[in-house]
Amino acid sequence: MRFAVLFLIFVVVIPDLFAQIFRVERIGTEQGLSQGSVYAMLKDSRGFLWFGTQDGLNRYDGHNFKVYYSDPDQPRGLHGSFVNSMLEAPNGDLWIGTDYGLNLYRRQSDDFVYFPTKNAKTPEACTPFAVDQQFVWYWSEEEGILKMDYVKKKKQLILAGVSHNLGLLAVSNATKFGKDGKLWVCLSKGLMQFDTATRETRYFFSNHPQNQLGNATTVLKALHAQDGLVYLSHSLGITVFNPQLNIFKNFTNLNQIDLREVYDLAEAPDGDIWIATGGNGLLRYSKEGNVQQFLHKKNDSNSLSNNTITTVYVSNDGLVWANPDPLGINLLVASGNKFRSIKYVSEAPNALNDPNVRTLLAVDKTHLWVGTEQGGINVWNKQSGQIEDYITHHPSKDKSIPSQSIYHLLRDQQGQIWVATYNGLSRYTGGGHNFENFFLTKPQNIGENIIRCLSEWDPNHLLVGTENGLYIFDKIRKTFIQVKGLEGVNILWVDCTDDGKIWLTRFNESAWKGTIHENQWRAEECILSGGNALSLLKDLRRKCYWIATNVGLLQYKNGKVMQKFSTKDGLGNAYVYGLLLDQQQNIWLSTNRGLSSFNPESKKFRNYQMNDGLQGYEFNNRSYLVDNEGYFYFGGTNGFTFFRPSEVRTNTFQPQIQLTELEINDQPANIGSYIGETKSLILPFDQNTLSLSYVALDYLSNGKNRYQYRLVGLEDAWHETENAFVRYVRVPHGQYVFEVKAANGDGFWSDAIYRLNLTIAPPFWQTWWFILINVVGVAALGMVLFRLRIRQLELRQRERLDLVVRTQEAERKQLATELHDDLGMRLSTLQMYLSEIDMVQNSRVSKLRPILEDAIMDIRNLLQDLNPKLLFEYGLRVAVEDLGEKLNVMDTLRFELLWFDFPEKLPEAIEINLFRIVQELVSNTLKHAKANSITLQFLQRDDQWVILYEDNGCGFEMKPFSSGFGLQNIENRVRLLKGNLYFDTAPLKGVHATIEIPYQKNANL
């Protein structure tokens, strides 16, 4: 179908009126582009625009450029200044073709890998044209067509001898894989179709002997369109080729537009073809067969920078990027849903002859009168969009308007048109440029005839505001009557309402509401003191008036100002000129900084500026109008803007966010990867002052983005700002998530939130392992100190026990000595005396002798207990054996001693204590146990000396804190020896005692 339409283009002339309106933005070296000749363009999967120039590679985010210049001396730098082609790999890396060879831009590390040509000493141009997860296909000026396995870094020559020299018209090779899967190789003349599987070849538009179709042509660009057609650009125009039908058609013009030197072609997502020419600007050929031409216009910033377009690229969002070589980039944005403006263009035909539009009036369905500051009345034709007539002052013609300065145009209830000028009042009488003029004073007194504003008071009278007071103009008598009370006052604005009230502004003084009675001004209320009111709008729905002033928008209701809205409420600028109400009951305001719309219900403003298509930033008072078709008009200092409010839709594009820079402690971060590709970041505790730069990838809003950000974990509330930068100082250690989102130029917030997981590691003294070590260390230290304290207490206790034991032993020895030396001696002497008495003669003496002998024996036994000489002379074993022999003498008790690898000799202190322990155990058995058997074992086990004592007596019940003195004595002596004592006993089960004494080396020495 497209091919058939192409043939019909030259039979039917398509009108040059094209429905789609475009906004043109100029982006050049002033905005940061490295160089003005752009020969390669690419929008990547992240949303960045990349531009290859004659001097480096540029990355653009809609706000700023980042430039990568050629630096062959750096291993990871870009090799080659002239970037001619770009291709994105599936992983997001970019393959870059330059005049120096092939480069791979690695996104994660933000650097380059260079792949030299066969002869690295004489680098040649390369053009990559296809890539997948493993292979990249590229054309080399030196080697031909190659396929490289960039994973294994091995390349394979596919076709040799197919290279041709590049030039200013062909900066890259147009070789591509076509829609048919075959390789279409661009030769020095024509194309070669190459089947990579069968290696079959076909030639078209070539000088090859096997050429199948067309004359030999130097192809600059081969565009394989979605519909299967191949568009070939060349110095003579465009050739449209159908490979399936093997037919073609050459075109040297479109819609009578010369197509010589077509440098580039691009297809938009909607199927439109964009054509870059070498002198006729940029053309858009729609799939319906319409042609639209974009040209450079003098003094019109909303036009191409020049008419030589070398490169054109259409991104996946439908934006058109063109290079008006060498003036950088022109971005074309479809903006038909916003505003259209008629701007002043110096010396342009059929255009405004003066930029300053003071007043507007729709005289019929087709024509709009545009009153200007110095150019009279410009008659604009709505259908053609051009100025078709100029109504100006001619001194020699009495019926011309009296001045070139037009301040107010008014149509009264009778349909008469009145004109307020710098030199009097005029009424349009029809018949071309015929007017009837009226003056306050004689015509030569020009300064006294400055009329600023008009208002219809009643069907027969106008109110005329001048720089010298307010006048009533009688339409019937055609006379001026000065209003008393306002003589000499500069009246800037006057308006009448249905209730007979008159509203007026005394220039830069005040605004008032009042009445006129018998030509006398009667002021009723001061609406605004010390300022200017410029427009009045009646709001029937809300039963109020809206007043435009130089300090904002006022709502007037029930005889007083109810509300005031200014910049703090979202209004773009506080100096408001005109007010219009649309069908949705929104108020449109012209200001000193663009247009604004206001929703009185939500009390929210939307502000529009030049990049939305306005004539300029500044508008004028009395220069606003709504016509019968619902178009709104606002005049300003560079023309006028018109639109239908229902067609001004909110831009719902959701900009994505990218991080662009990171500084840590106010120094560029060195985190081992590019911050824009980093999803999580772990930093030491002392690297906790962070500066993050981010950007909204938005090419529609012309930099008018707003941002919201927060650091989750540190703050919950969002912070809103225009700045694409945030700094956090001394962030405490912890885990955080940095979140940021953006709004487009219309204030529409994106749902997408960029998140960076951030961990600030704690200082080592606050880490869990350090805390654990400290806890364990403190606990261990506590245990050590506790044990030391216990040992100290035990030592003290042992010292006290030792002192007690030594004291006891000393007392025993002392007592034994005293008993032996004193009582024993006396008993022995008494025995000697008794032995000399005749026992027969004295029966009493005979009875006394056995008692004395028992006493002496008891004394000896007591002395043995108090001071066991056998223990001191022969050691523990002998002493215990002696104790056993004495027990075995008794018929009622059997004592058994077992000695297993126990030292024969121990230090005296140990032996004394062990012996006393055995004595105490035996004594308890004899006194309480009613036992007939005692077993005593001495043995050495592991690193302990063990004494096992057992009797078969009645036993006893162990109760805490109820041990008798004997048991306490045993426990004290065991503790003194640093040993352990264990009792196993119960009533009727005998007594089993185990005593463990730590083994002491050389204890038997």
UniProtKB/TrEMBL annotation:
Keyword set, alphabetical order: ATP-binding, Membrane, Nucleotide-binding, Phosphoprotein, Transmembrane, Transmembrane helix
Transmembrane segment boundaries: 768-788
GO function terms (MF aspect): ATP binding
InterPro entries named in the record: HATPase_C_sf, HATPase_dom, His_kinase_dom, Ig-like_fold, Quinoprotein_ADH-like_sf, Reg_prop, Sig_transdc_His_kin_sub3_dim/P, WD40/YVTN_repeat-like_dom_sf
Key word ATP-binding present: yes
Glycoprotein in keyword set: no
SMART domains associated with the record: HATPase_c
PROSITE patterns, A to Z: HIS_KIN (PS50109)
Domain Histidine kinase positions: 814-1001
Name of this protein: ATP-binding protein
Organism: Runella salmonicolor
UniProt lineage: Bacteria, Pseudomonadati, Bacteroidota, Cytophagia, Cytophagales
